[in-house]
Amino acid sequence: MRDHGFLSDEFLVKEARDGSEAHFNALVDRYTGLVYRVAFSVTGNAHEAEDVVQETFLRVFRNLDAFDSSKAAFKTWLLAICRNQSINVLAQLRRKAARFLTRPQFAEDRGNAEEEDFPHDQPDAEAVLLSKEQTQLVHKALTKLPEKQRTALMLKAVEGLSYAEIAQILKTSASAVESLIYRARSKILEEVKR
Amino acid sequence: MNCEHYRKQLSKQVDRDLDAALTEELEKHLASCPGCRSFRDGMEVLGRELQAVSERKPPTGLAERVKERVARERRRERVLLPAWTRAPLVAMITLAAVGLGNLAGRSIGTMLSSNGSDDSVEYTLTAQAPSFADVLSDNGSEENGQ
Fold first, then answer.
1. Chain A contacts of B81, Cβ < 8 Å?
2. Residues B41, B96: one domain?
3. What is the domain range of residue A148?
4. ipTM reported for the complex, 2 dp
5. Angle, to 10 degrees, between the axis of helix A74-100 and the axis of helix A21-43?
6. Which of A52, A83, A117 is the endpoint of a domain?
7. Domain end residue (candidates: B11, B37, B54)
């Protein structure tokens, strides 16, 4: 297979629009990891994140003609689709769980379930026992954040997107994103200190 | 300026989005505020913890599964596309046939009833005009029409 690594997103999208399977697949190769991490950040569930990835790329494929590069970068458009999919999945998960659990139990159990899914493995287990505990606390605190705050924080801290890019994905302003991220960090720190 | 203001600036500094002047102002505040220094330390730890999430890899073969699913969708579209492209053509031919039939039917009806007054023509056209099928089957005439 040809190496498409040096080709721009815009070029790959253009070729994919013209029916090139290879160029569309290059976009899949380039962004599967990112989409998976974002889906996982929002849903907190590895299995659901995988479904979100599949559904996101399927939607991208179906709506490639609707993508307008003058309005947003491909990556931003892709992540906006991913976020919408993830929110839908999260809502479904919550509805499903709410059928079986009372609300306070659900909140608690959901926190635990997400915590189990988040990674805890550290390279040097005995040396970082304290750190591991800290990691668990951080991840638990993450699951308690409102979705928008969590997504904004992850897109910034993990993916390194700019405030403007995150604002496009969350359909809000850059200053609102700054505020979301600040509040997310403050809440996590408060939670960890308890 | 209160501590919350500086903590917001700290959050921006972690994101490498704070300009030099504000950074200097922030550093001055940090030098005199243990609470904000503790907040900064916490944010640095948090930053490292969040980085651990970035090391999370997608399940093996996920990209390939995505490609297969999109390929299935592509094949499905290819199968559907010819039928879809045929549909407007069929619709156009049908409409044209109906339109022509209607025109022809009305024209013949008008021709056959041209001896009557204006009122009778109008009556013939609206209520008793022979259909195109009648005309084709040679039944459409003034005799059986009125």
1. none
2. no
3. 119-194
4. 0.78
5. 40
6. A117
7. B54
Number of domain units in chain A: 2
Q: What is the pLDDT of residues B78-107, one digit of tens each?
A: 776 555 566 666 778 788 888 888 777 766
For residue B68, how many C-alpha atoms fall within 13 Å in the half-sphere facing its CB?
Answer: 5
Yes or no, beta carbons of B57 and A28 under 8 Å apart: no
User: Closest by alpha carbon to B51, among A174, A122, A148?
Assistant: A122
Q: Are residues A23 and A36 in the same domain?
A: yes
Domain count, chain B: 2
Which runs of consecutive H residues, i.e. helices, occur in B34-61? 34-54
Structural domain including B42 reads 3-54
Closest C-alpha to A138, from B88, B53, B80? B53
Establish if B108 belongs to a structural domain: yes
**Do A131 and A51 belong together in one domain?**
no
- The residue type at A58: L
CA distance A143 to A8: 35
What are the DSSP calls for A29-69, one per residue? HHHHHHHHHHHHHHH--HHHHHHHHHHHHHHHHHTGGG--T
Report yes or no: B40 at the A interface, CB cutoff 8 Å: no
Cα→Cα distances A2→A13, A22, A23, B2, B3, Å:
16, 8, 10, 57, 54
- Angle subtended by helix axes A21-43 and B62-112, to nearest 10: 110
Closest CA–CA distance from residue B21 to any residue of chain A (Å):
19
Residue A109 shares a structural domain with residue A147: no
Please check whether residue B145 lies inside any domain of the structure: no
- Let me know if residue B95 belongs to a domain: yes
* Residue A161: other Cβ atoms inside 10 A: 23
Is residue B103 domain-shared with residue B47, that is, in the same domain?
no
User: Are residue B103 and residue B128 in the same domain, yes or no?
Assistant: yes
Cβ-Cβ contacts under 8 Å for B37 (sequence gap 6 or more): B30
pLDDT tens-digit profile of A53-102?
Answer: 999 999 999 999 999 999 999 999 999 999 999 999 988 888 877 776 55
Query: In terms of residues, how long is chain B?
Result: 146
Q: Cα-flanking dihedrals φ and ψ of residue B18, to 5°?
A: -115, 130
Q: Which residues in B lie closer than 8 A to residue A32 (C-beta atoms)?
A: 58, 62-63, 66
Beta-carbon separation of A32 and B63 below 8 A: yes
